[in-house]
């Protein structure tokens, strides 16, 4: 049997910022295959090209050279509009800084991607409510970001990322602004989305115990993938075998 077509295939990807003497090569030949349902953590020193790679993966930017196939489609050849359409259909994004609109309710924040898609108000409200419930925020629909904790704000951002039912969740340091307890709650949520819905997750993190939620850990250095490893398995609090009571 042939192996399945990778969801994502990067071949010899480079990215150069700037021109002439000021040019800087942030990616220097990246090869990566990601299968549907995979959970990949990306680690590496500051400036090694992790966010650059995430921007390319999420079709927010284009490589300087190399090939990117998404579901077999050579997306490096698409027009700006075609890329934007694919991005809205297949990708959800979560960032370190949450990126919620201030003075805007949780429900409205989560509805935003559906407004861009031109969906009707009734369907939007329904989908946004369901997504907020999925991240444990039923009842918080009318709160603005200022009225929510950091962990709750990141849950709203995750609800916004999944409300369009994306195939891929791209998360750039999603726990970077959260304390340890909140970080593990957010990671448990992301892991559940991966396990129960098959959402493919690519996540940048600086912390090994956050990367340990993934199935693969890819290490960047100087614009290249230096090595890949399988993280040590985590104790699963949900199986009831872990010592110590862990709240919901
Ligand atoms: N828009 C840009 N213009 C010019 N140089 C850039 C741009 N974006 C990133 N760079 C440079 O490319 C290199 C890689 O940046 P990138 O943001 O991908 O690093 P990173 O691995 O995400 O680092 P960090 O862990 O600090 O977030 C850095 O040297 C950075 O200064
Ligand atoms: Mg970065």
UniProtKB/TrEMBL annotation:
Gene Ontology MF terms in the entry: ATP binding; ATP hydrolysis activity; transmembrane transporter activity
Keyword set, alphabetical order: Antibiotic resistance, ATP-binding, Cell membrane, Hydrolase, Membrane, Nucleotide-binding, Transmembrane, Transmembrane helix, Transport
Cellular compartments per GO CC: membrane protein complex; plasma membrane
This protein's record includes keyword Transport: yes
Matching InterPro entries: AAA+_ATPase (IPR003593), ABC_transporter-like_ATP-bd (IPR003439), ABC_transporter-like_CS (IPR017871), ABC_transpr_LolD-like (IPR015854), MacB-like_ATP-bd (IPR017911), P-loop_NTPase (IPR027417)
Superkingdom as given in the UniProt entry: Bacteria
Keyword Transport: yes
CDD domains (alphabetical): ABC_MJ0796_LolCDE_FtsE
Signal sequence range: none
Residue ranges, annotated region (Disordered): 228-248
Known EC number: 3.6.3.-
Gene Ontology process terms (BP): response to antibiotic
All copies of domain ABC transporter, residue ranges: 8-247
One Pfam family named in its UniProt record: ABC_tran
Similarity-based family: Belongs to the ABC transporter superfamily. Macrolide exporter (TC 3.A.1.122) family.
UniProt-recorded name of the protein: Putative ABC transporter ATP-binding protein YknY
Organism, scientific name: Tepidimonas thermarum
Gene: yknY
